[in-house]
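=== Structure Prediction Worksheet ===
Name of assembly: unnamed complex
Input type: mixed (protein and possibly other molecules)
Chain count: three
Listed entries:
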Amino acid sequence: MPELPEVETIVRALAPRLTGQRIAGLRFLARRARRGRVPELRGRQIRAVRRYGKYILIDLDRGMLAVHLGMTGRLLWNGRPGPYTRAVLRLTGQDAVLFDDPRQFGGIRYGFAPPAGLGPDALEISESEFLDRLLGRKGRIKALLLNQRFLRGLGNIYTDESLFRARIHPRAPVGRLSRERARALYRAIRDVLSEAIAAGGSSVSDYITPEGAEGLFQFDHRVYGRAGQPCLACGTPIRRIVVAQRGTYYCPRCQLL
DNA sequence: TGGAATGTTCGGCT
DNA sequence: AAGCCGAACATTCC
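=== Predicted Assembly ===
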């Protein structure tokens, strides 16, 4: 569910509330939610909350928590615990952050560095680095953009939206992209992600902000979830296919192979 | 009822 | 070796 814009929105909401606070306890209500060992955290101070790709990092005075929301995870500020509450981070005082996650694809781990092995952040990478990394890669462009070791932050929605804006077919072989197309893709990724953050993310099924608000970017989707509806650029019905084992939306006329 | 859903990871194959 | 595929994880909603 949450991709870079959703995670960024969550981080922006939580950072001012959590920074400087002390932890009263972190309790797991589902075994699966705890990934790896987590020491006793009572008394630790939260130094910062930041985004790392799709991860939410909570920097402590010693160590850090890395929260991944998987498909259906939510972080809720002072919410009421429910059947899908998998963890509760209590602060001294009465504030708490709930980790709700019906499907339990998400989880929380403790460590001293951000998760290893991920590529540059989709919003921080420079154009030249993006082009360099693309060079020599094989396979289909959509699979590459979804690969977090190549670039961190993009998921299914924003990959489709970026490819549409760059007029690139999701099945296009990376090696056959012209430099011009590759630059258009870089631009499209930046634009889509920035616009989505400004809109507070996309609420298509589960995503809400820590305060329970929905994002608005789903109303600006040009292809994602629009199968059969006319392309906003040319009127051709948007098509749904499967690429990299994910439902993929594109315009068969604007995005030629 | 089967299929699909915003994600990651692992094992096996080419 | 890189990339691809299917499966697994767990649950809800058509």
